[in-house]
Design goal:
Length: about 450
């Protein structure tokens, strides 16, 4: 669930002091978005970043992708459109990507054929190589006041989900961000509730969709008061935790307390009103304390010890946004030098050590050793069919697995995908990346045809 906080300042995330939350409310980050996930996170912590491009002086997408992969702590990125150059740039990086449907496309996407065409154009061509995690359908629709967008939002989300399923894509989740006008209260955190005008007509159907599809929901929310929550007996030392817990409480009140929360955007401008705490020093302190708080694994008062995946807003300063404050949320300047945080560099090697096992295959072959690419145990048949189609469409000679071919027996998706995946791997440098196949392939040093590996629906290693 994504949450925007409009006041432009914020308290220290890891402050040891206990100021009243009413005072904190005057010092909030400009953007704090919470992404609610309906599944458990496997990583101890995960930090992402929002990559905006409202600027005329940024590096190319390929340079940005390489920089994020090699030089920063981030293992996931959120963009605000479906720019093919950016999506392509993150191919084979292992970095998770969130893409966005523009608001004006929502009404037409309720039609199944339009949704199928959108997925075919914006997702399918990149799916095999770029790790797309989420599709955001529009942005802040309830704030727009446009009834045509509001009424068609959930139907469009359902249509895109159905189009993904029809394309054999089961691991990309569909969501949408909301502004704070869908929240009725958030102070104290345990009293968080959704506004009645949206709860039954929009949010309950949407939350039910998310529960059914195991997908995230985005929400925007606002101020919160009081350092001590009398209902729970918990004390809040920063607004970050208070906002997270207020959304959790609203979800629980609506009957969806089984969700997990992920912070999709939180940031601080380095240029603004110094009297209100908006400036370079405050931005540096906020980002440093935020990362320290998230990587500590402490969770929040209502969710102690729970991993909290978090996305920072934003990667770069963007010189074509309106006003100096909006232009200066970047952690980095366009030349990649630090703007408000060196922590992304200082923590990079540590973060990569955590990231590596999550994108590394089970076996790293020795140099010069013979290797083959085979499906991972439990890989979905639908994913293997996509692997088969992809390999055969990109230069692999698949005549041997066609009916009557030398390798057509056994005649199953698993066997044919195994042949195609290995052929692709052998002809593309025998690298770990060329056996990735959206994390459904693995490299082995055992010849799959020698009897030790059975390439069948129940193959054995």
């Amino acid at each position: 669930m994504c949450v925007y906080i409009e006041p432009r300042n914020s308290p220290n995330v890891c402050s040891s002091e206990n100021p009243p939350l009413a005072t904190m409310a005057a010092k909030l980050p400009s953007l704090l978005l919470l992404l609610v996930l309906f599944y458990n996170l496997s990583a101890v912590y995960s930090i992402g970043v929002n990559y905006g491009t409202v600027a005329d002086n940024l590096a190319s997408p390929s340079e940005v992708a390489a920089f994020i992969k090699d030089k920063t702590i981030f293992d996931r990125v959120k963009i605000f459109d479906t720019n093919p150059d950016i999506i392509n740039a993150f191919a084979n990086t292992g970095i998770g990507l969130t893409v966005t449907v523009v608001n004006l496309d929502i009404p037409k996407l309720v039609h199944p054929n339009e949704a199928i065409n959108w997925v075919a154009t914006n997702i399918v061509p990149f799916y095999q190589k770029t790790k797309i995690n989420y599709i955001c359908v529009g942005n802040e629709i309830t704030m727009s006041g446009i009834s045509d967008l509001i009424v068609n939002l959930v139907p469009a989300m359902k249509a895109i989900h159905a189009a993904l399923q029809a394309a054999g894509i089961n691991d990309i989740k569909v969501t949408t961000p909301h502004p704070f006008n869908i929240m009725a209260s958030s102070s104290p955190p345990s009293s968080g509730k959704f506004a009645m005008e949206f709860e039954q007509s929009l949010l309950i159907p949407m939350l039910q969709f998310h529960r059914e599809t195991n997908s995230p929901n985005f929400l925007l929310f606002g101020e919160n008061e009081g350092a001590h929550d009398q209902a729970t007996g918990l004390t809040y030392t920063n607004m970050f935790d208070a906002m997270v817990d207020s959304v959790y409480s609203a979800m629980k009140s609506a009957g969806f307390g089984d969700v997990s929360l992920v912070v999709a955007e939180t940031g601080w401008s380095s240029v603004g009103d110094s009297v209100r705490g908006i400036g370079m020093e405050e931005a540096k302190l906020y980002n440093a304390n935020l990362i320290k708080h998230i990587t500590s694994g402490k969770g929040t008062p209502l969710m102690p010890g729970k991993p909290l995946e978090t996305y920072i807003f934003a990667l770069f300063n963007e010189n074509q946004k309106p006003g100096p404050s909006e232009q200066n949320f970047g952690l980095l300047k366009p030349d990649f030098s630090p703007s408000t945080s060196r922590v992304v560099y200082e923590e990079a090697s540590k973060r990569r050590n955590l990231r590596q096992p999550r994108i590394q295959f089970a076996m790293q072959p020795l140099e010069g050793e013979k290797t083959w690419c085979v499906p991972k145990r439990g890989a979905p048949i639908a994913s293997l069919q996509l692997n088969l189609d992809f390999a055969c469409a990109t230069g692999v000679d698949c005549t041997s697995i066609q009916k009557g071919g030398d390798c057509s027996i056994p005649y199953s998706v698993w066997s044919h995908a195994s042949y195609a995946m290995n052929s692709y791997y052998q002809s593309h440098g025998r690298t770990m990346e060329s056996c990735d196949f959206k994390n459904t392939g693995r490299v082995t040093t055992i010849n799959p045809s020698d009897g030790n590996i059975y390439i069948s629906d129940n193959f054995k290693l």
